[in-house]
Amino acid sequence: MAVYTQVPAETLAAFLERYDVGTLVAAKGIAEGVENSNYLVDTTGADGTGARFILTLYEKRVDAADLPFFMALLDHLADKGLPVPPAVKDREGREIQELAGRPACLIRFLPGVSLSHPTPAQALAAGRAMADMHAAVADFTPTRANSMGMASWQPLFERCGRSLDEIAPGLHDDLGFAIDAVTAAWRPDDFDHVAIHADLFPDNVLMLGDKVTGLIDFYFACTDIRVYDLAIMHSAWSFDTTGRHHDAAVGDGLLRGYESRFPLSPFEQAQFRNLASGACIRFALSRAWDWLNTPADALVTRKDPLAYVRRLAHYAPELVRHAR
Ligand SMILES: Nc1ncnc2c1ncn2[C@@H]1O[C@H](COP(=O)(O)OP(=O)(O)O)[C@@H](O)[C@H]1O
Ligand SMILES: N[C@@H](CCOP(=O)(O)O)C(=O)O
């Protein structure tokens, strides 16, 4: 469940008056997602034929100062015809608003569903969609440092501290060892850097059959190693949710789709395992932090950090000494 901020119907109806979208018909909180509050909003539409939007109120990790970067990226990609949801502009041309005390945007609704069990053909289409996105940002000039990038892992690890062993015995030492090894082999200067999504999990790709209809949730987007985006995607897509079962066909589909536009160089191929291990560390750490700092009875479902430690053991078995 991810509705942290309740918006009364009267407040929402008044908010919509800023836009040329007709009047409020219905609004429902969306259960999926963990970072922000999202509502599905139906209105009569500017021309009276009905319209649908996503209302997002930014919480937790999203810094309001980063919203202009995210919105500029969405506008840039939408202008190039990619299936991303830009924010709707109000009558004064503003995309970023304040509602119920939070930064908020009214976002274009995209059709499609996010998949729990992608097939190799769907992975191929998703990999190709990521490549299209990377091609489209070649002339996107704004930049944003990766707040969850390699330099953030050690400080976050230290903030979690020995409590990591409450999640699983030995987790502290395993992650500490892995961070040292993966960061020592990290060679950012030798890679191409672009604006990346940095969280393109299956739940952030909307599909109808084998067609990608939406790339959503750009709130970790940043400037970082282009192929690291693919490594994040590979680690998210080619395992079951527990991280125990690797689906090589899905991983291969993803790579084939991506490489149809951006073939990996021998250097990128050689570094891919380390980049994917870095992705596993990044998500194991953010999940561990949330696990230790979210009450077990909170409305939001905590995501299992160990599912990423198991993935790490797949990419780099030598780094994970405790079996889980
Ligand atoms: N533009 C959109 N069009 C259609 N559905 C969307 C859109 N944006 C979000 N959603 C729905 O809302 C859910 C949560 O959105 P998401 O951005 O992933 O939230 P969070 O940032 O909290 O993780 C998605 O899984 C999807 O079902
Ligand atoms: N994808 C991350 C958490 C971020 O959640 P999202 O719903 O914004 O994608 C994870 O699975 O740990």
UniProtKB/TrEMBL annotation:
It is an enzyme of class 2 (transferase). Pathway: Amino-acid biosynthesis; L-threonine biosynthesis; L-threonine from L-aspartate: step 4/5. The keyword Transport does not apply. Residues 28-258 form the Aminoglycoside phosphotransferase domain. It holds the Pfam family APH. GO terms for molecular function: homoserine kinase activity. Transmembrane segments: none annotated. Its EC number is 2.7.1.39. Keywords: Amino-acid biosynthesis, ATP-binding, Kinase, Nucleotide-binding, Threonine biosynthesis, Transferase. This is Homoserine kinase. It comes from Sphingobium lignivorans.
